[in-house]
């Protein structure tokens, strides 16, 4: 008999196999929906299989047992092996295939090329002129040079207007002089800057004839191309161990009056003429495009990270037998507890929702770059900036929460590095900070929401973009029993009310004499709440759109159960806003709760298959607890035995310190 869950193999843990047999949909078909196409889903499996046949691509030891130096070395080793096999493993022009291959082989702890593909090359694509493409892009794509994106400084990351690194133009030599005037001006944090990169896109304050023109991107050579030694005038190094990403070399960088030619200002959009005349860009923030790109990709990437943690936690919950339900002679799978389901299933729904929503923002970003590069049209930038600012903040926060719940759902074994969940958590929550600290970015979206409410107040609702049109729509009582649209309407009401309340509060402070900035700060918490609600509404809408578009009936049905869970969970989570003014009744609250509990029961038989559908290989998961075969106890024992501490029965530290102490106590 053909099983719908394609993960079933002989010899797997029976409890897990039993779960897989209950699948109501084909996991390969679900993977097509998750990854957007049959081809990519299939290619992912083929690539994972091909990688498993090249022993040199495997981790030489489990990563948790490696120290930092070993992690960096191991990452670089695998990268060089990968380089030799690249063309045979993937279509090198296919980003989806490349992304999968890197996740599979390199894992998530960082490596020398981590920022090269993610920010350095995209910054060139978005900011370099045709001549600069000619000079740099080919070399970068062939990896003759390795680059990173050096913007953040020791003293400033969020407030770009106060970056201190200067790029002063000297007309006599037609050069920029890069300089780090203070310790706080040192570039600090850029990934792959410390030891790996020999080039960087450096963001520095452009100064011409003593006048500052604000942050601009420059391509800068940091190290000698032959010896890899830092060039004279450059100070560069690694910033030390971090919460995660310890296979990566986030770095510091300082310039001592370091000269670069005029043509190294990335000048697709703004330029400095030989005589020092500055030519403005078509949009003041166009230099931020590499950041918008990463923010646009983050929802998908973070959804996958949550998917990793949930695959581990759900599989483990299906083989962990503990406690009783009705029959006191047989213990049950912990996955049967309603609390366990409530801890994990809404997070599965979110992982799916974030991935779907992420694909939509990636499409919007690609369109923006096309418009900008083909006809200089930057009209979509403000909308996309607002959207991705909110999205990266909401998604990273919930992903962090979801991963931590997944860890706790694994009890004691979740706390072991064998589960790998703590590493996934460390990597994921980096996203709350990088690409714009979450609060700062929520406040960016809030600016857009406040402006939109002001438009409605001044009778210009017709100027609202489609994503904020609901801010002008009249309120109607909602019958939640009528399907997803009624949930959207209820959420729109809640989100609209919060945006209006926060805007009114802000305007009131100003009417009472506060300056705009002070009034803004006094309303900031309320404003961030408005941003979160708006973003959650957007995620909900994209989830509904995606499920509606699915054609495979069993897949659509399983996704509809997830969607219903999501709708009820989300609405319950924000219900206090609608209860405040009696818009929602307590009967509606009870209805939502009951719907939610019944969704948990519906999802239960498909839980394992929903996470199997992510089709993360064991190599990619790097989790002893979450392996496909489900033999957790044997796998854990083998893993513990391989701990370097177990190489000898008696440690030198025992002989040297502990034993003498114990011996002394005997006297
Ligand atoms: C493939 C990918 C995989 C995923 C990745 C995984 C690995 C990742 C590895 C890790 C990688 C980590 C890599 C890293 O971490 S790289 C470093 C990332 N750093 C940051 O993200 C810094 C955060 N700060 C900022 O972005 C800016 O300073 C903000 C945005 C806060 C203010 O900005 P600024 O101080 O310049 O602005 P202003 O106050 O003068 O004016 C505000 C006005 O400007 C508008 N505005 C602002 N920005 C934009 C914009 N972009 N498009 C359109 N408009 C924009 C804004 O709406 C407002 O308009 P209005 O309201 O006045 O009309
Ligand atoms: C893993 C990782 C990788 C990174 N990679 C790179 C890279 O490749 N290249 C690069 O250039 N940078 C990189 N960074 C740096 C990162 O982009 C910055 O750390 C980030 O933008 C936050 O800036 P900050 O550190 O200045 O935080 P701060 O702004 O100092 O944040 C501290 C607190 O101040 C609050 N705050 C600050 N401003 C405001 C405001 N206006 N309103 C309200 N609250 C405010 C924040 O909300 C936060 O609570 C990386 C960081 C990490 C953690």
Automatic annotation (TrEMBL):
Q: One of this protein's Pfam families, by short name?
A: Acyl-CoA_ox_N
Q: Where is the active site?
A: 435
- An example Gene Ontology biological process: ascaroside biosynthetic process
Q: Which GO terms describe its cellular component?
A: peroxisome
Q: Note the coiled coil stretches, chain numbering.
A: none
Could you list the residue ranges that cross the membrane?
none
Q: Which residues form the Acyl-coenzyme A oxidase N-terminal domain?
A: 26-146
Pathway the protein acts in:
Lipid metabolism; peroxisomal fatty acid beta-oxidation
The protein's superkingdom reads Eukaryota
| Chief place of localization | other
Where would I find the Acyl-CoA oxidase C-alpha1 domain in this sequence?
Answer: 289-450
Which residues are FAD-binding? 152, 191
Using the record's annotation, list all stretches that form the Acyl-CoA oxidase C-terminal domain: 484-663
Report the subcellular localization: Peroxisome
List UniProt keywords, sorted A-Z. Answer: ATP-binding, FAD, Fatty acid metabolism, Flavoprotein, Lipid metabolism, Nucleotide-binding, Oxidoreductase, Peroxisome
Cofactor(s) in the UniProt record: FAD
* GO-annotated molecular function: acyl-CoA oxidase activity; ATP binding; FAD binding; fatty acid binding
Q: What does the sequence similarity comment in the record state about its family?
A: Belongs to the acyl-CoA oxidase family.
Listed name of the protein: Acyl-coenzyme A oxidase
């Amino acid at each position: 008999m053909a099983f719908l869950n394609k993960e079933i193999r002989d010899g797997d843990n029976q409890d897990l196999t039993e779960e897989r047999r209950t699948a109501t949909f084909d996991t390969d078909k679900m993977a097509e929906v998750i990854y957007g196409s049959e081809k990519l889903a299939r290619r992912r499996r083929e690539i994972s299989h091909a990688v498993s046949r090249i022993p040199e691509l495997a981790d030489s030891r489990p990563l948790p047992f490696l120290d930092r130096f070993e992690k960096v070395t191991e990452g670089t080793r695998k990268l060089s092996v990968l380089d030799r096999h690249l063309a045979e493993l993937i279509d090198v022009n296919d980003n989806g295939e490349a992304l999968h291959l890197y996740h599979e082989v390199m894992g998530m702890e960082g490596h020398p090329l981590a920022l090269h593909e993610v920010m350095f090359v995209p910054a060139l694509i978005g900011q370099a002129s045709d001549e600069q493409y000619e000079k740099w892009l080919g070399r970068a794509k062939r990896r003759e040079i390795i680059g990173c994106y050096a913007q953040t400084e020791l003293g400033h990351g969020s407030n770009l207007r106060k970056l201190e690194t200067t790029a002063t133009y000297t007309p006599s030599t037609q050069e920029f002089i890069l300089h780090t005037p203070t310790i706080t001006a040192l570039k600090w944090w850029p990934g792959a800057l410390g030891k790996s990169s020999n080039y960087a896109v450096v963001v520095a304050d452009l100064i011409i004839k003593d006048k500052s023109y604000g942050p601009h991107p420059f391509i800068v050579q940091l190290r000698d191309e032959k010896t890899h030694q830092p060039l004279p005038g450059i100070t560069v190094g690694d910033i030390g161990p971090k919460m995660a990403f310890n296979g990566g070399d986030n770095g510091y960088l300082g310039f001592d009056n370091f000269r670069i030619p005029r043509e190294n200002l990335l000048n697709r959009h703004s330029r400095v003429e030989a005589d020092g005349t500055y030519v403005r860009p078509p949009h003041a923030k166009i230099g931020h495009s590499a950041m918008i790109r990463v923010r646009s990709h983050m929802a998908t990437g973070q959804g996958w990270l949550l998917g990793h943690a949930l695959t581990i936690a759900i599989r483990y919950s299906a083989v962990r037998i503990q406690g009783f339900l009705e029959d006191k002679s047989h213990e049950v799978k912990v996955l049967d507890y309603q609390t366990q389901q409530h801890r994990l299933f809404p997070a599965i729904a979110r992982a799916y929702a974030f991935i779907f929503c992420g694909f939509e923002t990636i499409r919007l970003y690609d369109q923006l770059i096309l418009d900008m590069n083909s006809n200089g049209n930057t009209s979509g930038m403000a909308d996309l900036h607002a959207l991705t600012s909110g999205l990266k903040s909401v998604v990273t926060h919930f992903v962090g929460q979801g991963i931590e719940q997944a860890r706790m759902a694994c009890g004691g074994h979740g706390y072991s590095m064998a589960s790998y969940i703590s590493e996934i958590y460390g990597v994921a929550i980096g996203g709350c900070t990088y690409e714009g600290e979450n609060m700062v970015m929520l406040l960016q979206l809030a600016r857009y929401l406040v402006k939109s409410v002001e438009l409605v107040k001044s009778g210009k609702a017709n100027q609202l973009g489609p994503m904020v049109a609901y801010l002008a729509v009249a309120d109607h009582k909602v019958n939640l029993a009528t399907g997803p649209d009624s949930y959207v309407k209820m959420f729109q009401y809640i989100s609209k009310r919060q945006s209006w309340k926060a805007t009114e509060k802000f305007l009131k402070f100003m009417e009472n004499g506060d300056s705009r900035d002070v009034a803004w700060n006094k309303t900031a918490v309320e404003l961030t709440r408005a941003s979160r609600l708006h973003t959650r509404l957007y995620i909900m809408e994209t989830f509904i759109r995606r499920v509606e578009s699915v054609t495979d009936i069993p897949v659509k049905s399983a996704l509809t159960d997830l969607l219903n869970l999501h709708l009820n969970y989300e609405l319950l989570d924000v219900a206090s806003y609608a209860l405040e003014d009696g818009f929602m009744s307590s009967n509606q609250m009870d209805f939502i709760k009951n719907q939610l509990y019944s969704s948990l029961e519906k999802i239960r038989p498909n839980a394992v298959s929903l996470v199997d559908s992510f089709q993360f290989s064991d190599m990619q998961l790097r989790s002893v607890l979450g392996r496909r075969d489900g033999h957790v106890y044997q796998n854990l024992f083998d893993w513990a035995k391989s701990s370097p501490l177990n190489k000898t029965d008696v440690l030198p530290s025992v002989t040297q310190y502990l034993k003498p102490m114990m011996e002394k106590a005997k006297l």
